[in-house]
Design a protein that fits this description.
Elements lengths: L24 H22 L8 H15 L6 H10 L6 H22 L5 H12 L13 E2 L5 E3 L5 H16 L6 H15 L6 H15 L11 H6 L1 H14 L2 H40 L6 H9 L2 E3 H6 L5 H13 L4 E5 L2 E5 L1 H12 L1
Helix pairs in contact: 1-11, 2-4, 4-5, 4-8, 5-8, 6-7, 7-8, 7-11, 10-11, 11-12, 11-15
Length: about 375
């Protein structure tokens, strides 16, 4: 076991890949089961009539959960109302969650131009999260502390050293080392968190990189996975497993945690997708039956893109004049499909059954 002191910068953080074989029998068995469920989720998403339909909602839930890990707490209600009304919120937590969602979308857009995870991409993501010109951490004295104020880890120090560590990580991510992509993803995540390259926003950036990697590796063509929810529910185990790699080179404990995160989250994702699909199909049938003049495939898709909508959303989708779409929403509410509420001067409509499915996942 290597000598490790929590109070001293971990400048000796080993490069990737590790020198010893970390793909134990337990890890390989877990990789098979996690890969299988992830492939099922990928297939289910690809086969949707509109594969990107639920992305906004899933990414917003991921943004909310990932921010919650950093004790940035907001509510679904505040998030969706702010998003749909495009109002400026005074709630700093809501602002941070929406910035996280923007950063995730930014990362996905950048991958379309250049399908590689790079240091520059990480910087762009953290700048979007923090809404500033943040760069690689240059000030000495950075350390991570627990709730009692005790130092639990001191990351590498010195901008040139951090840049070297990131260059090695970038090379590892983007070259084929004969390592299973899910194991590689977990190793990449550990290394990024251990380098801790920014003064703030490392955890959130690291969790966005997980989704980006799943896309670039071809494991999940549409990155609709709600990973941070698992970390919240197993926060102590998550940090302990990261610490075990650093302090005693125990990769197995950490890899099993990360693989279980993928398996459990993908399984829940499949069930949630099934529930939303079923609700969408039954809602479409009922609207067609009760309100044939209101029904259109496009209208139903708008009601399921986010759980909140408004008149302008329907106007923008060219579903009718302001008066026509206003009447559509009134009829949909009168027939029990939507519930309305006022936010300032604006009336918004809630697909409350969709919201219920999402909030079940939120508290499961």
């Amino acid at each position: 076991m290597k000598s490790f002191k929590r109070e001293i910068p971990y400048n000796q953080l080993p490069e990737l890949p590790p020198k010893k074989d970390i793909q134990s029998k337990n890890v390989l068995l877990k990789t098979i089961s996690a890969s299988r469920v992830l492939a099922q989720l990928n297939g289910a998403l690809i086969n949707l009539p509109n594969p990107t339909l639920f992305l906004d909602t899933i990414h917003l839930q991921e943004a909310k959960a990932s921010s919650e890990i950093e004790n940035i707490i907001t509510t679904n209600d505040d998030l969706y109302k702010t998003l749909i009304t495009e109002a400026k919120t005074e709630n700093s937590a809501t602002k941070e969650v929406l910035n996280y969602k923007k950063a995730l979308w930014l990362g996905l857009e950048k991958l379309e131009d250049k399908p590689f995870i790079t240091t520059n991409l990480c910087i762009k993501i953290v700048q979007c999260i923090r809404q500033n010109e943040a760069g690689i951490r240059s000030t000495p004295g950075t350390s991570l502390k627990n709730g009692r104020g005790e130092i639990i880890y001191t990351p590498p120090s010195g901008i040139e050293l951090i840049q070297d560590k990131l260059a090695n990580l970038e090379k590892f991510i983007n070259s084929d080392k004969g390592i299973d992509p899910l194991i590689k993803m977990a190793m990449m995540h550990y290394q990024f968190e251990a380098i801790h390259p920014f003064s703030d926003g490392n955890g959130r950036t690291g969790r966005i990189l997980l989704l980006l990697y799943l896309k670039t590796s071809g494991l999940l063509n549409i990155p609709a996975l709600y990973l941070s929810d698992y970390i919240i529910k197993n926060k102590i185990s998550y940090y302990k497993s990261l610490q075990a790699v650093t302090e005693s080179n125990n990769w197995e404990q950490y890899l099993l945690f990360m693989l279980d995160m993928i398996e459990v989250t993908a399984t829940k994702g499949l069930l949630q997708l099934e529930a939303i699909n079923h609700l969408m199909a039954t809602t479409a049938s009922k609207i067609k039956l009760k309100l044939p003049k209101v029904y259109s495939k496009e209208l139903v898709e708008i009601l399921f893109k986010l759980p909140y909508s408004k008149r302008q959303t329907l106007i923008d989708a060219q579903l009718g004049t302001p008066k026509t779409v206003g009447n559509y929403l009134i009829l949909l509410e009168e027939n029990g499909f939507l519930q309305s509420t006022r936010v300032g001067k604006e009336k918004i409509y809630i697909n409350y059954k969709l919201l219920h499915i999402l909030e079940q996942n939120d508290h499961a």
